[in-house]
Write a structure and sequence with these properties.
Strand content: 35-45%
Distance between the termini: 30 Å
Strand order of the largest sheet: 3-4-5
Number of strands: 8
Oligomer: single chain
Radius of gyration: 15 Å
Helix content: under 10%
Order of helices and strands: EEEHEEEEE
Shape: globular
Low-confidence stretches: 116-120
Length: about 120
Amino acid sequence: MDFIRAQSYKGTATTGEVVISMGDVVDVRGRDVIVVEDIVDTGTMVVCLLDYLAKDNPASLKLCTLLHKPSRRETEVKIDYLGLTVPNRFVVGYGTDLDETGRNLSGIYSLDENAAKNDKQDV
């Protein structure tokens, strides 16, 4: 198992740029790889990450995501394992966050666009 940090958001908006941070990554050549993601929305970040990993010729490369927001899709993404489809709202909790805040909430909440950061509604 290995961890790669990839992000394309600042606050509630995508920057359009993908930043990938990692240490010494496990060699994926010839291995079965499953990328586990919190949310797939525009698809830009996860496609960049999948393309990066595919260059090392894994035996297989699959995508698992807890949340899917198809209304925001800009890039085609094949999701192999899906938890929930969510509406076009910014969500936090259960692993998703807003600038590192809200990740540890025990449920998934959507932010009220007109409210402060701490206001939330159940998804």
